[in-house]
Design goal:
The complex is a heterodimer. By secondary structure, chain A is mainly α. Chain A is 68% helix and 0% strand. By secondary structure, chain B is an all-alpha fold. The longest helix of chain B has 34 residues, at 86-119. The relative contact order of chain B is 0.05. Classes of the chains: A mainly alpha, B mainly alpha. The interface between A and B is large, with 51 and 34 residues.
């Protein structure tokens, strides 16, 4: 890390190659668009590079980077929804949950493991969760983070992550059951 | 007979069990219950099915090339970097201007005061 702070290109390259896929993966889950997710991930790493001298090492690099990615992704999602609502003349001040669904994701047909219809229904169910529950689902669904790491990214206690994840699973089980997907 | 609170606690434990986040004794306790109680098994399967669907639905279709991303980011970082020698000189210039203005101001004030005192014959 000291080498990155000192401006080592090799060290920064190592950091990017290690964490870029994870950063992109989180951004994609939140913004729901491959191009925007790339932009968010790149913006996040530029900020990481600029802020590295002030990094105090209180969190791991992984959770620090993901925290930045998460914040930028939420901003991107919120900005887009504001623009969309204003364009329609339906601006609704302060209601963050009134966001339109993210643009349609474009999965690779060859790697598609579930049908487009099922995917859309699951995404609708996830979008129907409250923002705090949706956040833990997005992070947990990457399958690479412990409760402690999710807690650090979101800045909440570990017990909160556990209870939110349980509540989200319960709600999703009910909703997906109602749609006869499970 | 389970109370609603106990049922809810057990459900929460199943959620954490699925993530491997229980301590050893709770892990054993939940494992026993899953083996012995079909309802617990069904609840765990339901959570697992939710996870599987959500993971498939939210995962990106492909991941970007990390090496290409690193090349791009490094070139962008280098393009925005400030030349190290230019920065201190610019900073010095920025601090110099107010100092010059202040010095000239003090000299003018002193000169006007001196001329006034001289006119009155005080110096």
């Amino acid at each position: 890390m000291r080498r990155i702070v000192e401006g080592s290109a090799t060290a920064f390259r190592a950091l990017v190659t290690e964490y870029y896929p994870l950063a992109y993966s989180l951004a994609y889950r939140v913004v729901g668009d491959a191009g925007e997710a790339e932009e968010v991930a790149q913006d996040a790493f530029l900020r990481v590079h600029a802020a590295m001298p002030s990094f105090r090492g209180e969190a791991s690099l992984k959770t620090w980077i993901l925290r930045i990615v998460h914040r930028l992704s939420l901003n991107r999602r919120r900005d887009r929804s504001r623009t969309a609502w204003h364009r329609l003349g339906l601006a609704h001040s302060g209601d963050v949950d009134l966001v339109p669904p993210p643009p349609s994701r474009e999965p690779d047909p060859e790697t598609e493991l579930i049908s487009r219809q099922t995917r859309e229904q699951v995404m609708e169910a996830v979008d129907g969760l409250s923002a705090p529950l949706r956040d833990v689902v997005m992070l947990s669904s990457m399958g690479e983070l412990t409760y402690e790491e999710i807690a650090r990214v979101l800045g909440v206690p570990m017990g909160t992550v556990s209870s939110r994840l349980h509540a989200a699973r319960r709600q999703l089980a009910d909703e997906l059951g109602r749609r006869e997907l499970i | 007979m389970w109370t609603p609170w106990r049922r809810r606690r057990h459900s929460a434990q199943l959620s954490a069990y699925l993530d491997g986040e229980l301590d050893a004794s709770s892990q054993d306790e939940v494992t026993d219950r899953i083996v012995l109680n079909p309802a617990s098994r069904a609840a765990l399967d339901e959570f697992a099915a939710v996870d599987q669907l959500v993971e498939l639905a939210l995962a990106p279709g492909h991941l970007p090339d990390r090496e290409a991303a690193a090349d791009l980011l490094l070139s962008r970082c280098q393009a925005t970097a400030t030349p190290p020698a230019a920065a201190p000189a610019a900073a010095r210039r920025r601090h110099l201007a107010p100092a010059v203005v202040a010095s000239v101001g003090i000299l003018v004030t002193a000169g006007v005061t001196f001329m006034g005192l001289r006119r009155r014959g005080l110096v």
